Structure to design on (527 residues):
């Protein structure tokens, strides 16, 4: 049995580095609450998105690493801030006019525009849980509304009231003059309208656990701070939650660095200890701009999964989490092939190397064992040159090249074939542009045609690649990159392409000769 506790001591993979920091905090004794608590947060004013996936996936990787380094029990809370007041109506929901009539109310009191659940908040919470369940995450769902209304947060809320002035001294210097005039960490829920109010607090009764706030009409209203009658402003809310639940680990995006500092200060004021944190970089769109849910730039989980398996998305999340990365369609093939390469190399690695391998973390130390028969890019180019959206056509070539692979024996490859067809249909096919060969290029292509004619049908990809190299060297190209670009643009209709030896071995020597012959004849290869 592998002694991960020993070999992980020198591990450089970031989940182990995070686990070590948490272990230093926790020590060897089980916390009074009985477990080490990991938390991720979710604002259910909209549907779950790729950032939600990334945060839960990364936190799960750290939790798994920690579990190998320590015997302390762990739990992961997926916390939904569903008592938050809805500030604007999302663009991607039905019945927007109906929802707009309830702006400002807690999400769990707004009617469900989809008509399937008790409220809009309940609907989005159900979507969140189905979303996380689909990926097999091990978590416990926790609702802000339930915590407030059940009294779970009552003691911590009384702590906020008892330390009101100290908390105000933390927050007020960060606000503008106008906001300072009305700010209070408590947001009363209006008993008449149900709206979460941002109003000044004019009186406080610590013993009674109540506040008095002034409405816009000047009337003063007294309300308990407990039992769901008030919610906290989000920075104070975050801090209160850390203290109330005794959260030990929570990561967040770079845009929340200052909020983490403020919430940490408030958590300490409440007698709590801020969790160990990890700051990850934000995603960028194709133009290098920050991804925005409201703008809708970037890429959704559903879109990614149309073109690639979920493990490739985890691969993207694992790699360099502290580096800003573009999150757009053109990064998908690279991440799929990186995942396949890491998965293929894992069985050949020592245990010390395996725990540095992304697929070891993606699969919680138990990755599937399937030979990486073909790269995703090769499949894309096969679909491209065949001009097909039919899986059976691609499998005809695959089975001839790799007789040991079938849809039944190679399920990962089979799913990749479907994904590659979708990617080809949506991104490659519309942009394919073939060009004719120049006279010098035509001579080189004829040379390649003749060389292929001398090769046996079962010539290995490596030997075919060697022939392609030699021909490129013999002709007047500035460098070999120019020769391969010539092949891509003339034969495949694109600027970049696969390793030609592997592609020709897969597509077939005779089929490639026919393709070259058509190109030399000036035929339209897009048909």
């Amino acid at each position: 049995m592998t002694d991960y506790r020993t070999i992980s001591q020198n591990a450089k993979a970031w989940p182990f580095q995070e686990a070590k920091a948490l272990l230093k905090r926790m020590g060897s004794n089980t916390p009074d609450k009985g477990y080490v608590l990991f938390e991720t947060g979710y604002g259910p004013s909209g549907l779950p998105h790729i950032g939600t996936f990334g945060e839960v996936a990364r936190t799960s990787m750290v939790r798994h690493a920690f579990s190998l380094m320590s015997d302390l029990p762990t739990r992961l809370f997926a916390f939904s801030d569903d008592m938050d007041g809805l500030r604007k109506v999302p663009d991607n929901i039905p019945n927007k006019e109906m929802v707009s009539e309830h702006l400002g109310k807690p999400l769990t009191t707004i009617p469900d525009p989809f008509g399937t659940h008790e409220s809009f908040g309940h609907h989005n919470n159900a979507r969140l849980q189905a979303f996380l369940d689909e990926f097999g995450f091990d978590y416990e769902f926790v609702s802000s509304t339930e915590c407030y209304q059940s009294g779970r947060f009552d003691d911590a809320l009384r702590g906020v009231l008892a330390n009101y002035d100290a908390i105000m001294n933390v927050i007020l210097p960060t606000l503008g003059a106008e906001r300072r005039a009305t700010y209070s960490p408590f947001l009363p829920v209006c008993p008449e309208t149900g709206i979460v109010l941002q109003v000044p607090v004019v009186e406080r009764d610590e013993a009674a656990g109540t506040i008095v706030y002034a409405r816009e009409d000047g009337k003063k209203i007294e309300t308990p701070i407990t039992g769901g009658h008030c919610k906290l402003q989000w920075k104070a809310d975050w801090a209160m939650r850390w203290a109330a639940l005794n959260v030990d680990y929570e990561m967040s995006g770079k845009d929340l660095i200052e909020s983490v500092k403020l919430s940490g200060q408030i958590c300490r004021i409440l007698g709590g200890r801020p969790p160990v944190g990890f700051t990850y970089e934000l995603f960028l769109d194709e133009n290098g701009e920050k991804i925005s849910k409201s703008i809708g730039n970037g890429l959704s989980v559903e879109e990614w999964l149309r073109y690639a398996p979920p493990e490739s998305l985890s691969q993207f999340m694992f790699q360099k989490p502290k580096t800003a990365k573009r999150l757009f369609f053109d990064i998908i093939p690279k991440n799929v092939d990186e995942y396949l390469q890491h998965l293929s190399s894992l069985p050949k690695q020592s245990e010390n190397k395996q725990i540095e391998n992304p697929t070891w973390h993606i699969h919680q130390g138990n990755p599937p064992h399937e030979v990486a028969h073909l790269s995703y890019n090769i499949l894309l180019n096969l679909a491209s040159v065949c001009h097909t959206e039919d899986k059976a056509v691609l499998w005809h070539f695959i089975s001839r090249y790799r007789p040991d692979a079938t849809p039944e024996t190679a399920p990962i490859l089979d799913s990749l074939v479907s994904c590659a067809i979708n990617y080809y249909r949506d991104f490659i096919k519309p942009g394919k542009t073939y060009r004719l060969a120049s006279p010098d290029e035509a001579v080189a292509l004829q040379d390649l045609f003749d060389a292929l004619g001398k090769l046996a049908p079962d010539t290995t990809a490596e030997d075919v690649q060697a022939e392609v190299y030699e021909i490129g060297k013999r002709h007047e190209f500035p460098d070999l990159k120019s020769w391969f670009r010539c092949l891509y643009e003339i034969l495949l209709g694109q600027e970049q392409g696969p390793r030609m030896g592997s592609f020709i071995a897969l597509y077939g020597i005779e089929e490639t000769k026919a393709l070259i012959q058509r190109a030399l004849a000036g035929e339209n290869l897009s048909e």
Summary: The chain has 24 helices and twelve strands. The mean pLDDT is 93. Residues 62 and 497 are 37 Å apart (CA to CA). The chain has four domains: 4-170+233-280, 284-362, 376-431, 439-520.
